[in-house]
């Protein structure tokens, strides 16, 4: 029965289709889907307008109705300055500067209830529709959803992976728990102590941007705080990337009044604790970015914990289903979460002599890098250990 249903799904890849058709088809399907925020037209349409020139669309149809859509951007790759294969990116460009906006929970947009069948049909179309030397890059996604690609004979290489975290607020409601009751005794103590300390500076307030202009003003406050935290790291602050900033300014213009984009300024008296930038979609809150004021060095001040506590408590009171911290490991995410998973970016391609040669070069490069690390470890002087240096240089916002 399932095979007959899948056989009734026809898929086709179109090169540079009309954007007005795509917007109409995407918005229509979105009403029949259960996508994450990152597959909403608000995110996808803004991404297209900011970064994408040429692209392809994979469409799945059943009984003349669109039941699946995905957007592919092809980038050439080079070996010794010679182009030797292309890479097809799902809802990304392959340009690190543009992809710093970082899509998560990446997938095809699909009709609700038949996602597994539609995804299999679309994966088959994608695998057989690209040239054999070319690669397919998908992520950041739940990799289990795309395991079928390997059954079609393609080899998977994990480019990046991390854990993702969320707090299921419906679970708290079922157990009649407050946020503080859910937390460990130590976390509860730290938050309450910190709030008492901040209250000495004045009333703790949570201001939500009511307009695009107000939200942009808040981002201007966030910029120096975020740059101060991340500019020395291996992965730089997005505020150092003009394209990142332009994308989010446009996203705010399009999403602030509908409530899909939320920007908060949290203060104690006149002192800024943080600027928090979240998305709200389908009764789920997605924590995207925070700029924290770390000017008070005492460990009794916990601006990040306090800020998340205030927003999570607000979400619980408003009936929100979950507060999603998304990808990236961090202690505060462990503190507030009751569910977690794994996200990854994976590259899939057919086995070939070219792929074997690429693997040899990659292994050789890794061996050289490890040898350099070994030498650095041996000559390390006073100060941070090499392991600590590596940890700091690979931190992500």
Automatic annotation (TrEMBL):
Molecular functions (GO terms): acyltransferase activity
Keywords: Acyltransferase, Transferase
Pfam families, per database record: Acetyltransf_6
Keyword Lyase among record annotations: no
Cited InterPro entries: Acyl_CoA_acyltransferase, BioF2-like_GNAT_dom
Domain BioF2-like acetyltransferase: 185-334
Keyword Isomerase attributed: no
Principal EC category: transferase
Top-rank taxon: Bacteria
EC number: 2.3.1.-
Name used for this protein in its record: GNAT family N-acetyltransferase
Phylogenetic placement of the source organism: Bacteria, Pseudomonadati, Pseudomonadota, Gammaproteobacteria, Vibrionales
């Amino acid at each position: 029965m399932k095979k007959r249903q899948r056989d009734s799904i026809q898929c086709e890849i179109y090169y540079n289709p009309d954007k007005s058709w795509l917007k109409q088809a995407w918005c229509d399907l979105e009403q029949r889907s259960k996508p994450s925020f990152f597959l909403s037209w608000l995110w996808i349409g803004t991404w297209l307008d900011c970064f994408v020139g040429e692209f392809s669309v994979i469409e799945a149809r059943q009984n003349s109705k669109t039941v699946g859509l995905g957007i592919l951007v092809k980038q050439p790759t080079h070996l010794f300055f010679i182009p030797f294969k292309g890479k097809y990116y799902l809802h990304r460009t392959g340009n690190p500067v543009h992809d710093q906006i970082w899509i998560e929970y990446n997938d095809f947009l699909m009709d609700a209830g038949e996602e597994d069948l539609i995804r299999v049909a679309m994966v088959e179309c994608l695998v057989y529709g690209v040239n054999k030397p070319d690669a397919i890059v998908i992520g950041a996604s739940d990799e289990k959803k795309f395991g079928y690609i390997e059954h079609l004979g393609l080899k998977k290489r994990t480019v990046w992976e991390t854990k993702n975290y969320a707090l299921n607020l419906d679970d708290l409601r079922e157990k009649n728990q407050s946020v503080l009751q859910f937390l460990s005794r130590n976390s509860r103590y730290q938050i309450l102590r910190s709030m008492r300390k901040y209250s000495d500076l004045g009333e703790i307030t949570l201001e939500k941007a009511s307009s695009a202009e107000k939200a942009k003003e808040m981002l201007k406050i966030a910029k120096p705080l975020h740059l101060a935290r991340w500019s020395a790291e291996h992965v730089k602050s997005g505020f150092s990337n003009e394209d990142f900033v332009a994308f989010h300014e446009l996203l705010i213009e399009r999403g602030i009044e509908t409530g899909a984009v939320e920007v908060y300024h949290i203060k104690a008296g006149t002192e800024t604790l943080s600027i928090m930038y979240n998305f709200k979609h389908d009764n789920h809150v997605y924590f995207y970015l925070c700029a924290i004021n770390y000017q008070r060095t005492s460990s009794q001040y916990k601006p990040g914990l306090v800020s998340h506590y205030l927003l999570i408590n607000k979400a619980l009171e408003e009936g929100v289903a979950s507060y999603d911290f998304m990808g990236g490991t961090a202690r505060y995410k462990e503190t507030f979460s009751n569910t977690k998973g794994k996200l990854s970016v994976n590259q899939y391609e057919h086995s070939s002599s070219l792929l074997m040669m690429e693997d040899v070069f990659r292994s050789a490069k890794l061996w050289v890098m490890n040898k350099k690390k070994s030498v650095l470890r041996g000559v390390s002087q006073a100060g941070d250990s090499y392991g600590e240096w590596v940890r700091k240089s690979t931190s992500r916002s």
